[in-house]
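In keeping with the milestone schedule agreed at the kick-off meeting, the structural modelling team has produced records for the first pair of proteins. Each record is given below as a sequence line and a structure-token line. The laboratory manager (R.T.) confirmed that both were archived under the project's standard naming scheme.
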Amino acid sequence: MKVFEHLNFEKRKIIANCLSHKKKAIEIAELIYCDPSAVSKELKRNRRVSKEAIDKRDPICKKTLRFPYVCNGCDIKYLCHKKQYRYEVSIAQREANYRLVSSRAGINLSQEEFEILDKKIKDGIINKESIYHIIKNNDDISISISTAYRYINKGLLTTKRVDLPLAVKYKKRKKNKKEYEYCENKNIDRNNRTYLDYLSYIRFKPNLFVTQMDFLGSIKTDTKSILTLTIPNLHFCLIFLVIKKNSTKMMSLFDELEILLGIDDFKKVFPVILTDRDPSFSDFMTIEYSPITGEERTRVFYCDPFKSSQKGNVENMNKQLRRYFPKKSSIDNLSLDYIKKANIAINSLRIASLSGSSPEQAFIEVYGKEILDKLYNFSFSNK
């Protein structure tokens, strides 16, 4: 069985050589493994006028009306006064390459399909959804994710590149960060709780789901802060609203979490916590040990100073949360309902690294829906 492919440069050279030797279409086709009609179409499509007719009364040569359609192998082409055609390999290849690209250009959708696509992407971006989530969550969208980005980059959709939160390059970061900075308490003994200790600890527990903890930067005039707990394996995030953050508030928060979940479920969800050196996290003993049973409920480790890359997952999650909590904007006036909707929205987005599932679905698969409901309700009732 013959396998038909596009003609390449080498096959076109064979065609040109066969024309000079006056080969028939069927003979050429056998040499390049194609149908004789493909040879005829190739010659008709890519022939070029090499000489205009001098004899105006009878300008057309009958040989150019049938195979081979060109004058490459003609014996009297230098004496002929009729219109002549020539098959040039380089020109034919260049034209074929152009057709191959141009035939795939444009939008392969009907007007109605394109309008539906345009509206759904626009509505999704307004709702702070990713392109991946929009495409995966709408079965009636027939294009791929890369095609959607291509349409946006070419300006074919109402949604523009600037509307995508992470598509536009960030400006160079300013060195002055006083608006969000904190002062580390260097008198705290963090022996056995450094980042190297963390790496040593998880080496013997490779299947452990670590939680990364951080505060989302807020302006100094705010009394409220947003605490984020991220489970990198699941891309799952929990948002806690904390008023006047300090170590006592952190102790209270984790104590209430233990009461809510029970000590066993608490250990399952938060076995290890990796965080930065914010003063609010300095009293690690009150986070690690249960005030009810006195047993160890989690292990706390600290990143090195100015090494936010060591907890890159929670930093990336904070960057995504900026869609709901913009920089230099106060969060004091935000309602608990808005906080809850933002948390549910960020966990409902489908992502490629979870095979198209959402972090919420992944969390339910691992820990169950009952624990998820408890955490959601707690996240937005705790003050």
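The second protein of the pair:
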Amino acid sequence: MNSRPLVSILTPVFNQRAYIRKTLQSVLNQTYKNWEWIILDDGSTDDTGDIIKSAHDSRMRYFYQEHAGIQYLTKTYNKALSLCKGSYVAMLDHDDYWPEYKLEVQVKGFDEQDIVLSYGECVLVNGDGRKMGYLKPPADVAIAGNNPVGSALRILIVDRYCFIINSTVMFRKSALLKIGGFVKADGLYHDYPTWVRLSLEGRFLSHDLCLGYWRRHPSSISVRNNKEVELFDSGIEYIRRFIPSNEKKLRSLGFFFDMDYLEDNWRKRRAEFATYLPYNKTMLMLNLGRFEVAASEFEKYVRQNPSIKNKIIWSLIKLSGSLHADIVTPLAAFKNLTVGFFTKWPR
């Protein structure tokens, strides 16, 4: 293996003048230098393109297309993939950023030929870069490493949960090309269906250190779209088609899914997710300083769960709005008032 193989970085971008400089700097600061960066501008109407081009680095390859929109994100990613020259591909969302060691750490892991995908821990940050949470790979090493091959499906399929965060991912390009590129699935983004499909192709390598900063802010897609339940349901529909269409491969790996059990488990997971969705959105909005939205979301939760504790939290949320300062999250961390913050968020 070439000890310094070329890594292609993929970043579709749209109107990110507020955050793209941080994203740019995190790539330019990488200790691993043999990379190319495919930046595909989806018709930005601000000065995002000018900011990118001002970097003047020959490893950056900037392309512009007419605006396709989020509904065609997978197609945009596949277009960017077709422009890649590297043996490995690293993912970086246009408002996220990396620690400087990110590429260096991950390239080394692909010395083992059956590794198809590498990922790691992720820090959630707000628009100002303040830490809001931390996401880790599953504690079960078999699931985290997809070893034996297919083990990751015990969470990806059974729990319908995507524990692999896009901006921490690097994969072997040949493995993705083998499955036809990023997987298109109705109602979903590119990541979840692609990681599910790649779980049949080889082992994963999970790193127990931060490999990416996932920025959540009022204009980010995951905050703005308000389609969390629809995403959950679309994921279930994808799995319902995935299992029979890959039955032979799944059986060869020792997987025999009981569809009645899966359907029952999905119903329970969906009900749990829908119940806690207003709660989790409240905590997110508090961290983003959107106090009126936070109070509105928590009112929905209190109506479903009218406990004294929840009414106290609701009062604190409304007080946060009056003070224009989040007093709930620090108290929650101290008193352990909250549950499930930022966990099992569908993608």
